[in-house]
Structures are given as structure tokens and as C-alpha cells.
Amino acid sequence: MTIHRFSLGQMQANCYLLEQDGKALLIDPADSADFILEQIQRRNLELVGLAATHGHFDHVMAVGEIQLSYPHLSLHVNKKDQFLLKRVAETARHFLGFEPMVVPIRLIAELPKGDFSIDDFRFHVIQTPGHTPGSCSLYFEKDKVLFTGDTLFQGGIGRYDFSYSDKEDLKKSIQGILKLPEDTRILSGHGEEALLQYEIDIIDQYF
Length: 207
Hints:
Elements: E1 2-8, E2 13-20, E3 23-27, H1 33-42, E4 46-51, H2 57-60, H3 63-69, E5 75-77, H4 82-85, H5 88-96, E6 108-110, E7 114-118, E8 121-127, E9 136-140, E10 145-149, E11 152-153, E12 156-157, H6 167-177, E13 185-188, E14 194-195, H7 202-206
Parallel strand pairs: 3-4, 4-5, 5-6, 10-13
Antiparallel strand pairs: 1-2, 2-3, 7-8, 8-9, 9-10, 11-12, 13-14
């Protein structure tokens, strides 16, 4: 599996394009739908799925526009974060300071806990609440890769000061992540890639 990372939008959220056997899976389709679609077309890939680690606007703004080109594709996201998808335009306006063009997300599907497949992409969904109630981390064991969204970054953790966030839940979620093999690659929602073995003291730094 080949992983392409694009940092998109004013919030520089990471969008990941996973490529395997001519097919593509998008994790956190952040912003700039035209750019994302061009990357898929340039590589002559078949887009088979959309998934979000959580429902914050900067990680899903491109979804509705992408669905215009792929109307059969649902966005897979934990049901506890689906309330955030209804606020995408509102929260984008609040944080960005202007009225962005946001195409409403049309189809939404559950991202359940445990082993899960989207077409030929197989991974394990780890529920990692705290930053948001429905935050999830997506673990591709064969490739030793964990997509953590805004739960764990290189040398940092996600915010927990939102009204729906929970500091203790975030701590427990990170403690769970730290039990994975130390050579697991951490691909987060913002910033550069990290290696889990260098994040083992993160709990002591922040909690």
C-alpha cells in the first residue's frame, strides 16, 4: 500500500490518499476537492471509499464536493461525531473568519469499532474519544500504520477544551494507542509523521 499525504486548507489538515492495486481510499478529505480529485485522476485510480477520523470541519470540508463526482460513496465516520457534520459550514466560518463554499455531505455511514473493510482496504477501527466524542484511529496492522486524526501528533496531543471534549477520555485513548507496537508509524491530522516509540512519554508531558 502506498500512502500519499497532502496538507490542505488554511488549517493545513492532512488528507491521506491510500493507493493499492489501482484503487484509492481517502482518509480525512480535508479541503481543496479539485486538487484531491486531480491527484486521483493523475494516478489513474478508482476511488472506492471515504473515511474520517473525526467530524471536525477541517478534516471533511471536501467530502460533499467529492461526492458530486462519486455520488455512490458514503463518508464513513463514527456516529458520535455525526452531529459535527451538520455544523461544517458554521464552524468553518467561525474558525476561518470568512464564508467558505461548503457542499453538504450527502451520504454518511457508520465507522464501527473493530475490524472493518472498505472494498479491498482492511483495517482495525480503534475508538479514541476525547478530542471529539467519536474520534477514531485507523490501524493498518500489515503496514504498521495508525491514522490518529487529532488524537495524537508528533510530540503533541489533541485539544480537549471544546464543550464536547473530555480530557480523561483523551488520556485513556492515548494510553491505548501506546500499547501498539513501538515501530508503528503515526500519521496524524496535522503535522509530520511520527514513530510510536518516540511518543511513549507523551502522557507524562500532558497529563
